[in-house]
Amino acid sequence: MTQHTNGVLELVHVERTFKVGRRFVRVLDDISFSIGKGDILCLVGESGCGKTTTGKIVAGLLPPTGGEIRFLGQNVWEMNKEEFRHYRRAVQIIHQDPYSSLNPTQRVSTILTAPLLRHGIARNHKEAKEKALELLRIVDLTPPEDFYNKYPHQLSGGQRQRVSVARALTVNPEFLVADEAVSMLDVSIRVSLLQMLERLRNQMGVAYLFITHDLAVAKYFAWEGRIAVMYLGRIVEIGPTPQIINNPRHPYTKALLSAIPEADPKATRSKERVHLRSLDVPSLLNVPSGCSFHPRCPLYEAGLCDATVPQLVDVGDGVQVACHVVAREQGVA
Amino acid sequence: MSSFWQNVRRTFRLLTYNKVGFIGLLGVIFFILLSFVGPYVVPLDTQTKVDKIYQPPSSEFWLGTDSEGRDIFSQIVHGGKDVLVVAFLAGFISTTIAVLFGSLSALAGGWVDNAIMALADIVLTIPQFPLLAVLAGLVKFNNVTLLALILGVLSWPALTRAIRAQVLSLREREFVEAARALDLGTRHIILKEILPNMMSYIAINLIFAMTAAIYAQVGLVFLGLVPFSGSNWGVMLSLAWTRGAIFYKGSLWYIMAPVAAIALFQLSLVSFTRLLEEIFNPRLRTSV
After folding, report:
1. Minimal Cα distance from B178: which residue of A?
2. What's the rounded Cα separation, in Å, for the pair A307 and B176?
3. In sequence order, what are the residues at sequence separation of 6 or more whose Cβ sits closer than 8 angstroms to the Cβ of residue B146?
4. Which value does ipTM take for this structure?
5. How many Å apart are CA B255 and CA B264, to the nearest integer?
């Protein structure tokens, strides 16, 4: 089902359950996608739909309870030590909260030179310092000497996030998992950080798994890439960004897009809203039967949607949708 | 070389930044010098001088004399060593046990965690002072190391629990996750990411463990449960008490001198913690 078979990083039918008390909660169900070199895949969805868990699984910080995650065609959790080290360094993560992602007791110098020295990327402290200053320049913290000896609490949120990016870049990663990396920043700083990430992609060929709840950010950042829309632990629609934004097929994607305010207030007011049948997100402890979106879905058909789980099917233009009704209308069911 | 002096200057500025803490540090240094270097300078006055009982302070007797006409100042100088040694040793022993057990408990989890926490609960429920009193009857406490060891072994549980809770919370932090993704190794994560974030807490608890050890030890000596060996601020207090010093008019200096020594040393330690807090927590520093 993945059309990118040349993907460097692949998730194949990944499932993840967590134990809550005595019950098992399935947070991710049948997640499959692949990311190639220099690709952007944007994961969007409501809070609690499993975006962060997916990010952690991609970064190898959390093993999946079912399915496989493959790096260069090899199952990550069956790798030998040497291969796993290569993978681990190739995929880095940038966290959401710039205030807890940097150790408050370490200076920027330590934060950046520790991985450089540990992995022999710099042979000595002098070389590590040069490399660290270079990295600070890459993430637009200039002049780098001003930031090198600072503690995280002496930096602003945006500057910290740049240090986080610089730290991730110390090990020359091929992938960055950006978990809501710009959500906690001011709008003005957000754009310049996104531009910087984009520049890294162009110059260094870094691929992104960009996790966000904000479709506007997804649209801005991933225009050349793809968007995957998640709902309650499943991907409901995945495809090239322009297709998803301009021609959403899944009712959930439509609902999300119709909720974005337009720059023009008149346009916002006259915008056609998708009317959901319910505004409550069902609990993961009690996922609805069949299509988990059916209690809210405007296209709901009794006996079909609440009975069987829809699978992702190709509907053309490289888009895949998991919806019975849409699939039937497209004649691919 | 210049960077070395820069570091020295930076450290000194850091030390002097918090005034209260710096005075505390000076106090601690003063008492260490008084107790460990002092005895080589001031000989212990053991000679009974009947004509000089309960003298007020003078140029000859800086803090006056006791019930047998002996110099109180010389006793203070000689009586500090045992108190300090027991305090430092007991503090280090209990803090070390607490840090090791607490981290192990949090990181290992499972039955190790359960076993350590059960042990901590048991030790926590033992009434310390009565146990010490009973132990004093069984073991000869004339060895300061033994006394320190027992005090240390009895006082680790509270800190162990706190350390365990801190490690559990710190290891889920995002910077620890980032360190894992960067493959910096378990050693680095424990020593460079988690431990420094607990250092101010650990250092302050070390000081409080010391103050508690001082009270426990002096209390035991005062009650006569620990046999008198040499001189000790606790022994002085006990002697002053049993000789009925509180009933004599000129005896104030005799009973107040050890009390003041103990209280001032404790005060120095406690104010020193203010400085420690600032040294180990960069967020509290306003400069440097």
Report:
1. A93
2. 43
3. B139
4. 0.84
5. 15
Binned average pLDDT, 10 residues per bin, chain B of 288 residues? 74 80 89 86 76 74 73 82 88 92 87 90 86 79 80 87 90 89 87 88 88 85 72 79 72 80 89 84 66
Give the separation between CA B17 and CA B275, rounded to whole angstroms: 8
Using the Cβ of A128 and the Cβ atoms of chain B, whether some distance falls under 8 Å is answered with no
Contact B174 A100 (CB under 8 A): yes
**Residues in chain A within 8 Å Cβ distance of B197:** 103-105
Under 8 Å between Cβ of A235 and A226: no
Task: State pLDDT tens for residues A107-145.
Answer: 899 999 999 988 888 888 888 889 899 899 888 888 888
The answer to whether residue B173 neighbours chain A at the CB level (below 8 Å) is yes
- The CA distance from B42 to B47, in Å, is 14
Strands, DSSP E only, in A213-264? 226-231, 234-240
A53 class by beta-carbon count within 10 Å (0-12 exposed, 13-18 middle, 19+ buried) = buried
Our count of domains for chain B comes to: 1
- For the purposes of burial, counting CB atoms within 10 Å of the CB of B128, is it exposed (0-12), middle (13-18) or buried (19 or more)? middle
What is the residue extent of each domain of chain A?
Answer: 9-104+151-329, 105-150
Q: Could A101 and B175 be called an inter-chain contact, meaning their C-beta atoms sit closer than 8 Å?
A: yes
Q: Is B191 touching A (CB cutoff 8 A)?
A: no
Could you tell me if residue B244 is left (phi over 0), alpha (psi between -120 and 50 degrees) or otherwise beta? left
Express each pLDDT in A274-321 by its tens digit.
778 887 888 888 888 888 888 888 888 888 888 888 888 888 888 899
Cα distance between residue A227 and residue B55, in whole Å: 91
Could you tell me the CATH number of the domain that includes residue B134? 1.10.3720.10
Closest CB from A59, A103, A153 relative to B181: A59
Q: Which of residues 129-188 of A touch B (CB under 8 A)?
A: 151, 153, 164, 167-168, 170-171
For residue B244, count other CB atoms closer than 10 A to its CB. Answer: 10
Distance separating alpha carbons of residues A92 and A59, to the nearest angstrom? 6
Fold of A9-104+151-329: Rossmann fold (3.40.50)
- Chain B touched by A91 (CB under 8 Å): yes
Which site among B170, B180, B182 would you substitute to test the A interface, given the most A Cβ atoms closer than 10 Å to its Cβ? B182
Number of residues assigned to chain A = 333
pLDDT at A4 over 80: no
| Contact (Cβ atoms closer than 8 angstroms) between residue A214 and residue A226 | no
- The CA R_g of chain B, rounded to the nearest whole Å, is 23
| Domain that residue B79 falls in | 2-284
Gyration radius of chain A over CA positions:
21
**Amino acid identity, position B104:** L
